[in-house]
Write a structure and sequence with these properties.
CATH architecture of the largest domain: 3-Layer(aba) Sandwich
Helix content: 40-55%
CATH topology of the largest domain: Rossmann fold
Radius of gyration: 16 Å
Structural class: mainly alpha
Oligomer: single chain
Strand order of the largest sheet: 1-2
Number of helices: 4
Distance between the termini: 34 Å
């Protein structure tokens, strides 16, 4: 995420996103994420489905810790067994 912020060069966006990152807990990548990654990558390649290797590690990490992936990237929905939510689109509109 920080790489993307560096590329964007938007000071307001960078400041806002760094504040968000400071407010959330970052969990270390640990076993069995490596095993899940290997299995998912092989299974998805066999089925002709692909996401980037970095995204695959993110998905495997989420699965290893039992987390829900919150993203607007629809590619993650291809990952078998990954729970995905899109808070930008899946949340019903608030009515006044």
């Amino acid at each position: 995420m920080k790489y993307g912020l560096e590329k964007a060069r938007g000071h307001r966006l960078k400041s806002a996103m760094l504040a968000v990152l400071d407010a959330i807990e970052i969990v270390n990548l640990e076993k069995p994420a490596d095993e899940i990654y290997a299995f998912l990558r092989a299974e998805m390649a066999q089925k002709g489905k692909a996401i980037t290797p970095n995204d695959m590690f993110i998905a495997a990490h989420a699965m290893a810790i039992g987390a829900t992936m919150v993203t607007d990237d629809e590619g993650f929905r291809q990952v078998p067994g990954l729970t995905v939510e899109n808070w930008l689109r899946d949340v019903p509109a608030v009515r006044e």
